[in-house]
Amino acid sequence: MTKQNLQATYDANFASTQPMGSVENDEIDLRELFAVIWKGKLLIIAITAVFAIGAVIFAINQPNIYKSEALLAPAESEQSGGGLAALAGQFGGLASMAGINLDGGGGVDKTQMAIEVMKSRQFTSNFIQKHHILPDLMAAEKWDMVDNIISYDENVYNVANSEWVREVELPYKPEPSMQEAYKEFSKIFAVNADKETGMVTVSLEYLSPQIAQQWVNWLVQDINKEMKDRDVAEATRSTTFLKSQIEQTNVADIRSILYKLIEEQAKTIMFAEVRDEYVFKTIDPALVQEEKSKPKRALICVLGTMLGGMLGVMLVLIRYFVKKEN
Fold first, then answer.
1. How far apart, in whole angstroms, are the C-alpha atoms of residue 215 and residue 120?
2. What span, in angstroms and rounded, lies between the C-alpha atoms of 274 and 169?
3. So what's the pLDDT on residue 99?
4. C-alpha distances out from residue 104 to 94, 188, 256, 261, 264, Å
């Protein structure tokens, strides 16, 4: 058998093993798919319309949310860290012999500490109770732009009697606990630090732009006061301790170190008392925003319509293939 005959025989056998009309079958399947979709177009249109209308109604009923934010810069550290470091260099060995530590914990970043304090449950709870914002946080329903009035959910809070009337199961009570309030506040509040610039942004979202701005301002004021009070209390306790140590020693060098430490604590207290912006300086204060930050109503409508269209196509195809198999 010649080479040409062998090649012809191989081609014939190879062609016989291939499924007949594979390309045609693919085209037929694709055409069949589009035909099924076209046949069920009324159902697809109906489902898409229902989802589109539902998305529009949902978007319209969502209240406007306004975001207020303040840009802060860490206050310059002018406290006693430098003085304590100098004392540690001069008298560290002698002080350690006397049982006095001059290290002072200088590795603590007060800016980061202040950020973590702002996020803490204790600070948030104190903030809510101090400014009496629990009804605005847990029961507010909508804001009247014309009259600048917050409306409350009558099933949750009775404004006339200043009474909580919500129905809940134990262990919850009609008046929300601070744990509930903390969870709700965490959803609308954020504080972030820029790693490159060191700037800190405090932001808050709420129904009313005026209230959002007020809360941001209060947060900045309260964290500065909180950190100031902590340092003053610590310096006062340290001063009391150092004075007691002076009374217990007659070594001149040790007494000299203790007096210098008392001087540093006095500087800390003085520094705290003369500065209101103790930890954070306000670079760009919070404003009453004129434009809402959310909801994105157009996006909600588009996504709702797309979801309805995809669901309609899936239902038509599933119904067709189920009937085909049966």
1. 16
2. 50
3. 47
4. 16, 37, 18, 11, 11
Closest CA to 90 of 242, 208, 254, 224: 254
Q: How far apart, in whole angstroms, are the C-alpha atoms of residue 86 and residue 90?
A: 6
Domain spans in the chain, listed from the N-terminal domain onward: 25-62+297-325, 73-284
83 in Cβ contact with 261 (< 8 Å): no
Residue 54 falls in which region: left (phi positive, over 0), alpha (psi -120 to 50) or beta: alpha
Q: What is the largest CA-CA distance in the chain?
A: 122
Give residue 290's identity as a one-letter amino acid code.
E
Collapsing DSSP states into helix, strand and coil, what is residue 294?
Answer: strand
Query: How large is the angle between the packed helices 110-119 and 209-248, nearest 10 degrees?
Result: 120
Q: What is the length of the chain?
A: 326
Closest to 215 in 3D by CA, of 286, 278, 162: 286
- Residue 100's nearest CA partner among 262, 233, 271, 234 is 262
pTM of the model: 0.75
Helices (H) then strands (E): counts for the chain: 11, 8
The ranges of the chain with pLDDT < 50 are 6, 10, 14-15, 20-28, 78-84, 92, 94-95, 97-99, 104-106
Determine the Cα–Cα distance for residues 247 and 242; give it in Å rounded to an integer. Answer: 9
